[in-house]
Automatic annotation (TrEMBL):
<dbReference type="InterPro" id="IPR003337">
    <property type="entry name" value="Trehalose_PPase"/>
</dbReference>
<dbReference type="GO" id="GO:0016791">
    <property type="term" value="F:phosphatase activity"/>
</dbReference>
<dbReference type="InterPro" id="IPR006379">
    <property type="entry name" value="HAD-SF_hydro_IIB"/>
</dbReference>
<feature type="compositionally biased region" description="Basic and acidic residues">
    <location>
        <begin position="1"/>
        <end position="10"/>
    </location>
</feature>
<comment type="similarity">
    <text>In the C-terminal section; belongs to the trehalose phosphatase family.</text>
</comment>
<dbReference type="InterPro" id="IPR001830">
    <property type="entry name" value="Glyco_trans_20"/>
</dbReference>
<dbReference type="InterPro" id="IPR036412">
    <property type="entry name" value="HAD-like_sf"/>
</dbReference>
<keyword id="KW-0808">Transferase</keyword>
<dbReference type="InterPro" id="IPR023214">
    <property type="entry name" value="HAD_sf"/>
</dbReference>
<feature type="region of interest" description="Disordered">
    <location>
        <begin position="1"/>
        <end position="23"/>
    </location>
</feature>
<dbReference type="GO" id="GO:0005992">
    <property type="term" value="P:trehalose biosynthetic process"/>
</dbReference>
<dbReference type="Pfam" id="PF00982">
    <property type="entry name" value="Glyco_transf_20"/>
</dbReference>
<protein>
    <recommendedName>
        <fullName>Alpha,alpha-trehalose-phosphate synthase</fullName>
        <ecNumber>2.4.1.15</ecNumber>
    </recommendedName>
</protein>
<comment type="pathway">
    <text>Glycan biosynthesis; trehalose biosynthesis.</text>
</comment>
<dbReference type="InterPro" id="IPR012766">
    <property type="entry name" value="Trehalose_OtsA"/>
</dbReference>
<comment type="similarity">
    <text>Belongs to the glycosyltransferase 20 family.</text>
</comment>
<feature type="compositionally biased region" description="Low complexity">
    <location>
        <begin position="14"/>
        <end position="23"/>
    </location>
</feature>
Length: 792
């Protein structure tokens, strides 16, 4: 999803500065976008940084931002430098999504005091963000992993609160926001991940109001009683509310978040929607809901079916002495994972003779994690002491009770371990999801094996056929382990089949799609006119002077392949005719088309006000179109025509539309990748020769104009001209967002179809719009009738 941008930028020398300062220090050519700031295209969350007045655009239509990149920079014992897969479930989940998406991944390279150029890794564009050693200590090990991590995991360990850690967290979040702002194309989708970067959404919105911003929290969000301990509890929530959609693993997490918003800010929340008041007195709607993360199920199944991995699984079992039961635990060495509880239960089962050392073994992978954080150092000592004691107490010369592995294994080896294990033990005290549980289920392609799963791991919401346990209840845990070991084959298969079926319903691609569809508004729109919209139509119909302003293509008229064939639906036309006949009611068509072309296809009734070429042309109750080009602009038009004609001639189906103040390159009829490539070439060529031209991106169309304008400006002019007390505006394209953005209280904005929007209402297509216009005409006529009766 790489999109053509003003300039390919590299976030080198990131200093944490924002806006113009950051752009300048990064050596990026900056462009002024005062209009979008003035219009409040999307307003920042309260107390977020002021919108920047200088914006540079990058290349990428999708940008993922997370603390960890999929690869860490490493130096081996011989001083050889290289990259290796980084730890944790976030990377496991996002890697396959990003390989499909052709987006950019902004993150830290896992090493302090080093800067790296952006690079490609395994089909993913990597944009490294540097951290100093002090920031590593304060932002990552300190605030992220010794304040937020324990606080968000039910204070299993006591969180530490230090002001200098918080200051570092703010600085680093600002740097990540600046880096994302530099690589995101205009209007791009930026998906920020996890607790390390909770301030990024609002910071990014301040820098780039044009972006669609999502946030996903991979770890739990704590109940208010715990969250409220945090000295910076308000700032964190303000940071998150900069996003359009905030995703959580579990329903309970989303509920905890919205409760904290209500308690701390008093904002209204309706189901999953938080209404955030903006600086101009309007409401921004932020969605906070659950999207349980998953794994690449088909990918794990495929690996589990590979003969060499199955052979490795047999080798592992043989190496363990081919016991009857192999039990497995796989965790980062983290106090949230409940490793100590698991070992205690296992030790007691051995001590009581309920498990026999001759035919049982526990393989515990405890991969190194956060090794410089004191709590983790202590944990390692405790676990290794416990393992040592258990082995000392229970192992025999030929059989070891626990095979303890303080190592990180590649994915193939993980799959072999899952295949080798009869029982999987996931005993987390609190865990956002726990992908290990899902990976085990995916790999059990023979439908055998038992999963013992903590109810405090997010995975337990979906994997209900596992043996669900409370890890604090050691007796219950012991019973579950024994049940798992002795479970009859038939019951094992039945449970595992159900688990696998459930898992396949939500693969990681489904998770990403669900989140991004919600974020970008691509989710299906229901047919019909919603009741809430009908209520608002009644309200707007009662206004003293009403302006009904309508986009044409895709709104009054369904989209067609040839622009000259577009015609308004008959039902829409009828409704427009009724509206223009009503008192104190003006109708306007607001189109991106040249006015001459709009008049040809729309055949507007005489009193309809017209604006074309995105507001550059106007025809307001007079026969002439107002637009006078300077001689310099006419010369620019000639060069532009030459460039775009040359580009369009390279692909069948692409064409150039002539407009009074510019040209539009249409790519609707060429395959999407070719269309994108043509647009990218056009942008670069025009940029090189005519850098001052304004560029507007629509659905499969790229427009260049020698004079700038947009539908927001056009709507403001129409409002002033008609002195309307309320404005109804409907449109389907991204260019209509400028118009929605200038609407205020007492107006009604209506998005037609899918796609991200700032409009307050949405219907499915032109048929629904025609219904809406007919209803508006009914309500307005009834209002006029009532007034007449009152007067007489
Ligand atoms: O980056 P680290 O500090 O080394 O930690 C590794 C990752 O751990 C956490 O993973 C979480 O995400 C998983 C996928 O959503 C989820 O299954 C698990 O329950 C979470 O704990 C952390 O959230 C990541 O940011 C870290 O990269
Ligand atoms: O030696 C190891 C240990 C773990 N993992 C992977 O690390 C991830 C752990 O994710 P999970 O959600 O279970 O926990 P997290 O570590 O993110 O808290 C899973 O994909 C594991 O397969 C791995 O690749 N090698």
């Amino acid at each position: 999803m790489r999109r053509p941008g003003a300039e390919r930028v590299r976030p080198r020398n990131a200093t944490g500065e924002t806006g113009a300062g950051a752009a300048a220090s990064l050596g990026v050519r900056a462009r002024c976008e005062h209009r979008s700031c003035r219009n409040g295209f999307i307003i920042s969350a309260p107390a977020s940084p002021a919108p920047a007045h200088t914006v540079a655009y990058g290349d990428y239509g999708l940008v993922v931002v997370s603390n960890r990149l999929p690869v860490d920079f490493v130096v081996d014992a011989d001083g050889n430098e290289g990259w290796r897969s980084s730890p944790g479930g976030l990377v496991t989940a996002l890697e396959p999504v990003m390989r499909e998406a052709d987006g950019a991944w902004v993150g830290w390279a896992g090493v302090a005091d080093r800067e790296f150029e952006p690079f490609e890794n395994d089909g993913i564009s990597i944009v490294p963000v540097p951290l100093s050693n002090e920031e590593l200590e304060r932002y990552y090990e300190g605030f992220s992993n010794d304040t937020l991590w324990p606080l968000y995991h039910d204070v299993i360990a006591p969180p530490s609160y230090h002001r200098e850690w918080w200051e570092s967290y703010v600085i680093v979040n600002r740097r990540f926001a600046a880096a994302a702002a530099m690589v995101a194309a205009r209007g791009a989708t930026v998906w920020v991940h996890d607790y390390q970067l909770q301030l990024v959404p609002a910071m990014l919105r301040g820098l780039r109001p044009d972006l669609v911003i999502g946030f996903f929290n991979h770890i739990p969000f704590p109940p208010y009683g715990i969250y409220s301990q945090l000295p910076w509890r308000k700032q964190i929530i303000e940071g998150l509310l900069g996003a359009d959609v905030i995703g959580f693993q579990r329903v309970a997490d989303a509920g905890n978040f919205t409760r904290a918003v209500r308690r701390l800010f008093g904002y209204t929340t309706r189901h999953t929607v938080v209404e955030v008041p903006t600086q101009n007195g309007e409401l921004r709607r932020v969605v906070a809901t659950n999207f349980p993360i998953s794994i690449d199920v088909a990918g794990f199944e495929e690996m589990a079916g590979r003969p060499e991995i199955q052979a490795r699984a047999r080798e592992i079992r043989a190496g363990l002495g081919n016991p009857e039961t192999v039990m497995l635990g796989v965790d980062r060495l983290d106090y949230t994972k409940g490793i100590a509880h698991r070992l205690k239960a296992y030790g007691e089962l051995l001590a009581q003779g309920r498990l026999d050392i001759e035919n049982t073994v526990l393989v515990q992978v405890a991969s190194p994690s956060r090794e410089r954080v004191a709590t983790y150092m202590t944990l390692r000592d405790e676990i290794e002491l416990q393992v040592g004691r258990l082995n000392g107490d229970h192992s025999s010369i030929s059989h070891t009770a626990i095979a303890y592995l303080h190592q990180a294994y590649p994915r193939e080896e993980m799959v072999a371990l899952y295949l080798a294990a009869d029982v999987m033990l996931v005993t987390a005290l609190r865990d956002g999801m726990n992908l290990v549980a899902k990976e085990y289920v995916a790999c059990r392609v023979n439908n055998d094996g038992v999963l013992v799963l903590s109810e405090f791991a997010g995975a337990s919401d979906e994997l209900k056929q596992a043996l669900l346990i409370n890890p604090h209840d050691i007796e219950g845990l012991k019973d579950a382990i024994e049940t798992a070991v002795r479970m009859p084959a038939k019951q094992r298969r039945k449970r595992m089949k159900t688990l696998r079926k459930r898992l396949r319903q939500n693969s990681v691609s489904d998770w990403a799609k669900a989140f991004l569809d919600d974020l970008t508004g691509r989710a299906a729109v229901e047919p019909g006119v919603p009741d809430t919209l009908i209520t608002k139509l009644r309200e707007v119909a009662a206004s003293e002077r009403l302006l009904v302003a309508l986009d044409f293509d895709g709104t009054l008229a369904p989209h067609v392949d040839r622009p000259e064939d577009a015609r308004a639906l008959e039902s829409a036309r009828t409704a427009v005719m009724r509206l223009v006949a009503l008192p104190e009611t003006r109708v306007a068509f607001v189109s991106g088309r040249a006015l001459v072309s709009l008049e040809q296809v729309a055949e507007p009734p005489e009193s309809v006000l017209l604006t074309g070429s995105h507001g550059i042309e106007m025809k307001l109750d007079q026969p002439e179109i107002s637009l006078n080009l300077l001689s310099e602009e006419i010369a620019q038009l000639a060069s532009l025509a030459e460039i775009l004609d040359g580009i369009a001639s390279k692909a069948e189906g692409a064409w150039v539309e002539r407009k009074p103040a510019g040209f539009a390159l249409h790519t609707r009829l060429v395959p999407a990748p070719t269309g994108l490539a043509l647009q990218r070439t056009a942008r670069a060529s025009v940029q090189g020769i005519l850098p001052s031209l304004s560029v507007l991106e629509g659905k499969n169309v790229l427009e260049f104009s020698v004079r700038s304008g947009n539908k927001g400006d056009a709507l403001q002019q129409l409002r002033a001209y008609t002195q309307a007390t309320s404005v109804f505006y409907a449109g389907d394209d991204v260019t209509d967002e400028h118009a929605f953005a200038v609407q205020g209280a007492g107006d009604l904005s209506l998005k037609i179809g899918q796609g991200f929007t700032v409009a307050g209402n949405r219907v499915r297509g032109p048929e629904e719009l025609a219904e809406v216009l007919a209803l508006l005409a009914d309500f307005r006529a009834a209002q006029a009738g009532a007034l007449d009766r009152a007067r007489s």
